[in-house]
Specification:
Oligomer: single chain
Distance between the termini: 49 Å
Helix content: under 10%
Largest sheet: 5 strands, antiparallel
Number of strands: 15
């Protein structure tokens, strides 16, 4: 939805683009002013039953377009982080720095070309195996931020999810620890 101050200026439905796993909205905005009003945006998040603020705002100008079918204008939701983990065919070490209301394996680790026998395991001794007819089965039921996981997939894919940024508190035990942490920004490795 588009607003000028607290006044609603336009509403539209959000559509999911496949295979990009991105969302788009085509929104007409109207105003009694020809230009100069600041237009802000909000999104209804049905999964959390919350109205979320969009970070970007635009200055209204009559008869103009922002973005197009060929050149989408990207908007970001405040308080929501997006995670995209590139996966290689074979074994991958992964971790999560975001949380969402449903962190079950069937909700988080999906749409990555899983086949019967794909395996996810943790240093905590838990594991799950994927079966196409029933999803993930095993002792590992959900993923947690800060835990390092080993995921086996048959082909190159990209694991995508969104949620709230997790706190960076990690519990360390005596002995070896597998600690998984994805920073928000890339940083070089020091020797």
């Amino acid at each position: 939805a588009a607003y000028v101050g607290d006044e609603l200026q336009g509403v539209a439905e959000v559509y999911k683009l496949v295979p990009d796993d991105e969302y788009v909205v085509y929104l007409d905005i109207y105003s009694n002013q020809l230009q100069g009003e600041e237009v802000s945006f909000k999104l209804w998040d049905a999964s959390e039953c919350e109205i979320r603020d969009i970070s970007e705002a635009f200055t209204f100008e009559a008869n103009t377009e922002v973005g197009s079918v060929d050149r989408l204008e990207q908007l970001s939701i405040e308080g929501i982080s997006y995670l995209q983990i590139p996966l290689q065919a074979g074994t991958n070490w992964i971790s999560f720095n975001v949380t969402q209301s449903n962190m079950s394996l069937n909700s988080v680790i999906k749409d990555v070309g899983l086949t019967d026998g794909s395996v996810l395991s943790s240093h905590e001794g838990k594991y799950a195996e994927f079966a196409s007819f029933e999803g993930w089965k095993g002792t590992l039921k959900e993923v947690k931020p800060g835990v390092l996981y080993k995921l086996t997939v048959p082909e190159v894919a990209s694991l995508k999810m969104s949620g709230k940024l997790a706190e960076n508190q990690v519990n360390v035990s005596s002995g070896w620890n597998g600690i998984g942490l994805i920073k928000e920004t890339p940083s070089p490795l020091a020797q």
